[in-house]
């Protein structure tokens, strides 16, 4: 039996925290449900999942649809697209059966790559290797989630670059249905002896083929900060998203970006294992950030207290605290509002 290998390569970087990651996890349930209901797909399709943030790893090795169990997705700092492609190529080498004079190998693999950001490593060498040795042997569909994706880097990988943008409730599940349909269509065309790759029609309301990549935006789409709970020592992630604010004077009008709080999410300790450990010095001034969350672990009033070591912790108002990062005693005193012109904190790589 010739298999149709399908690889999902998923961006699990900080900017995906919250809705996007949960929607991806739910999306797998829906894809698997559809594939199990289709006789061609059930027979031929095998699925594999590779996740990437600061590092990339296979989290589900190639397995038949029948035995596939949707994984819990990790979260980490960084968007190492080069590492993701290296992991994909290694997985293809390891698990896809090649055609030889003695045996019919697997069908041409399908790859769905999802990302919402800009690479934080140098993907150049991996892209070159993909194009010279793998591009003809696999069909790659690259999906950018939202306009802040670096589409020009995706265009260097494949002609099939799709922008997905959620404009209404339910668009993500409609999009997941499209993914399932494209896998089913592929397995059907194999059943009919066609080895060609055709994409089902796109629903233009929330997805379109990217022909000319739009210029990348100068400022970052979101700012993320990592802290630790003083009481439980568990990590959390604070996320701010860019909003453009109109500033008008008598003479002219322009837009300035501000970053508004979208949420504070509890993290697992494995966040650090999925993060890029290279030291970077990305700073953000707190006066650009609107809103301060409470601690998602212990309910302390603010998750936005900064220790002398530069790390964030939660406190419940002016008090003595032990920093869960450096173990020093810190005293937080109230500050008069007049002195409050912001200070710099280290931010994540996105
Ligand atoms: Zn706490
Ligand atoms: Zn500290």
Automatic annotation (TrEMBL):
Highest taxon above the source species: Bacteria
PROSITE patterns in alphabetical order: VWFA
InterPro entries reported in the protein's UniProt record: TerY-C, VWF_A, vWFA_dom_sf
Pfam families: TerY_C (PF15616), VWA (PF00092)
Domain VWFA: 5-179
Protein name: VWFA domain-containing protein
């Amino acid at each position: 039996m010739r298999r149709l290998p399908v690889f999902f390569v998923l961006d699990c970087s900080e900017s995906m925290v919250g809705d996007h990651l949960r929607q991806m996890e739910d999306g797998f349930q829906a894809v698997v449900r559809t594939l199990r209901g289709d006789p061609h797909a059930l027979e031929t399709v095998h699925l594999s999942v590779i996740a990437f943030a600061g590092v990339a790893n296979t989290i589900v090795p190639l397995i038949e649809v029948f035995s596939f169990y949707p994984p819990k997705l990790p979260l980490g700092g960084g968007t190492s697209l080069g590492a993701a492609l290296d992991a994909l190529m290694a997985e293809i080498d390891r698990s896809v059966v090649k055609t030889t004079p003695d045996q019919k190998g697997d069908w041409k693999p399908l790859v769905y790559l999802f990302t919402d950001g800009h690479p934080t490593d140098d993907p150049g060498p991996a892209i070159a290797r993909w194009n010279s040795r793998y591009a003809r042997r696999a069909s790659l569909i690259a999906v950018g989630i939202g306009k802040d994706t670096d589409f020009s880097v995706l265009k260097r990988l494949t002609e099939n670059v799709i922008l997905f943008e959620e404009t209404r409730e339910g668009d993500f599940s409609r999009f997941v249905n499209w993914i399932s349909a494209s896998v089913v269509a592929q397995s059907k065309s194999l059943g009919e002896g066609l080895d060609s790759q055709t994409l089902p029609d796109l629903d233009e309301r929330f997805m379109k083929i990217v022909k000319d990549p739009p210029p990348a935006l100068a400022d970052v789409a979101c700012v993320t900060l990592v802290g630790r709970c003083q009481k439980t020592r568990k990590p959390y992630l604070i996320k701010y998203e860019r909003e453009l604010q109109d500033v008008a004077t008598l003479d002219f009008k322009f837009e300035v970006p501000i970053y508004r709080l979208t949420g504070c999410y509890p993290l697992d300790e494995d966040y650090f294992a999925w993060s890029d450990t290279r030291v970077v010095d990305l700073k953000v001034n707190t006066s650009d950030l609107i809103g301060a969350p409470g601690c998602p672990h212990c309910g302390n009033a603010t998750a936005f207290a900064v220790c002398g070591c530069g790390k964030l912790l939660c406190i419940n108002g002016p008090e003595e605290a032990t920093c869960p990062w450096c173990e020093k005693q810190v005293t937080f005193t109230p500050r008069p509002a007049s002195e409050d012109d912001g200070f710099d904190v280290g931010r994540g790589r996105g």
